[in-house]
């Protein structure tokens, strides 16, 4: 980032003429206003710029590495399941679990945890918090794996969600990945997390409500209808990847199944490899174009305990968010985001980037 | 933060016995579930820890300094207003404005910007984005000012909000401050920002809805009724400061007017000094106890263009959020937060900390 002294010649006008005017957009999925403001991209900073890449200690081994299994919380399952072979993927309990799998079901009979007072509600912290170790090798990243191997990671998510769905008290499962310290990661060894919640979280309720509203008005599912055109980045047999119309973050990507599907865990083996290949491609494009930025991905699925037949309006997708800008008091206060990059521009860049 | 190898003796059990069980809480103001999970505070990291304090370049002067006014976007007003004296506070246009004050009112007659398609809605980016320079001196921070001077900054917010409220198209004004690079700040010179929006943002709508619901059920305003007890941190003649019951962030603080008031800009001179003194105290406690962390504060007020008589249920407050933990894919995906510190513990610490 350049220093502030260079911009004093711009102080007489507002944005320079070649900069597009700001625009507010709200998409029919998130129902959240986003401010698109290319002028914001030019602002200077007098703080030392953060290094774009993730600096991890030159550590070669950690508890997630092959041979360190005893340093981890208990294993739930591994891939391949046979214990004779070295593992490729391990699904384990999170040692510092945000929720407790040993507490009582907070909604169970003769248990009265849902104390609701004037001040608010309290619920026992029942739930599951697992870690998916995506590779036994410390230096390998998810995008280094083959499409088949990425597909196996996705199928490990699926298997674990199916197990969690057998608990009536679990209402929603959030699968997510943090890559790089500024995306929240505390461990550098390639992994993702699965958190199973006794409540349907707020963004999911909002998404369900707006999907229902859209379905009510149009008779269609909003993600089946998603207009691609200039927002399309890539496609595979079963999936498309787009820059969402009202992206909250610059270079945000959504990977969406072409055909209606409410729950991520409907994914079959062939689709998992196909998704693995598109996900790998998107991660490599982001890494190459944006200089290996920290990122998060999140799988947005439907609540559990609801049959697919009741969900014609709701369509799962995977959201990738490179962490390029950070947020401040405006976003914390309002829940609105300021995005300096129009999604059609991000889509063009990501469509055209040539990975060597 | 310690390395992961030290915790291998804990792998057989879950959280150690002295750690309190996790709990979910939702308060009647934000209506958002928060996971309280003290066990999370103990997790290790193999990334280099970020320095807790804000490292700015050893710069002594910047465009916000006395004598550099020509490097800034146009001034709106200054305090004191007389141009003969040196200024104490300047309210200026943001040079990299997120919204444009020169665009048409997006809701004006014979203007059809609110194009609503299957994909979503678009609105011209009309609005105001200002910067409040809180002091002419580069090295002075807000909490270094006297209570009277902090009060003058608050009255500058008030005056600017009153000006912005004269625009019918402005529906909400967000006042916020970013301190430190990891709280989003790009300028280290002490300042805050004021963003005036043509829409009511999502967190405000949610807050209004839950306040209405509470009022409907109880006949009372939820913040007039806020139970303090173990959540109280400090108080002044006209304000109390508390750790909110379902704080999203560790050591989050709310400063609330004792008597019902819907709009921040009802603040008078005496209350401004009183609030200035409590705000200064809270910022000094946070800085002293938590080692000068980055932080944000946000003023949560009511929408404009609505008379106070229609707002018996909604009560403004100021929220302070020290940035201690960062967020990850779980929070981005669900809108739920994981807070390792119970608010009653944070309140106790902040109540008892002795500032030298
Ligand atoms: N030996 C061991 N055995 C089993 N598990 C182990 C372990 N050692 C560490 N772990 C767990 O491994 C996980 C690694 O996760 P990440 O690096 O993705 O981020 P983390 O969850 O720490 O926090 C980020 O993600 C969360 C959720 O989004 C945010 O709340 C937070 O602010 C952000 O930093 C941690 O949850 C940790 O508890
Ligand atoms: N010469 C000049 N004259 C007038 N104004 C000048 C100027 N030079 C710089 N500015 C403005 O001064 C402001 C300083 O603001 P902050 O340091 O609080 O954070 P910033 O708005 O950059 O971004 C943080 O806050 C926003 C809003 O929360 C987040 O979107 C973002 O991610 C986060 O980094 C900037 O908005 C900048 O445009």
Please explain how this structure is put together.
2 copies of one chain form a homodimer. Chain A is globular and about 60 Å long. Chain A is of the alpha+beta class. In chain A, the strands form 2 sheets. Chain A has a 10-stranded antiparallel beta sheet with strand order 3-4-6-8-7-12-13-11-10-9. In chain A, strands 1-2-14 form a 3-stranded mixed beta sheet. In chain A, 20% of the residues lie in helices and 21% in strands. Chain A has helices at 147-164, 202-218, 269-289, 329-334, 343-352; strands at 23-27, 33-36, 75-79, 89-93, 120-124, 128-133, 172-179, 191-197, 232-235, 239-242, 253-257, 295-300, 317-322, 337-339. Chain A has a single domain (23-42, 63-111, 120-352), classed as HIT-like (HIT family, subunit A). In chain A, helix 1 crosses helix 3. Chain A is built from 5 helices and 14 strands. The structure holds adenosine-5'-diphosphate-glucose (2 copies). One adenosine-5'-diphosphate-glucose (ADQ) sits between chains A (63, 71-73, 92, 94-96, 131, 178, 184-187, 193) and B (4, 43, 325-331, 338).
What shape does the CA trace of chain A take?
A: globular
Helix/strand-derived class of chain A?
alpha+beta
Give the CATH superfamily of chain A.
HIT-like
The H/E string of chain A reads: EEEEEEHEEHEEEHEEHEH
Oligomer: homodimer
What is the strand content of chain A? 15-25%
Rg on CA atoms of chain A, Å: 22 Å
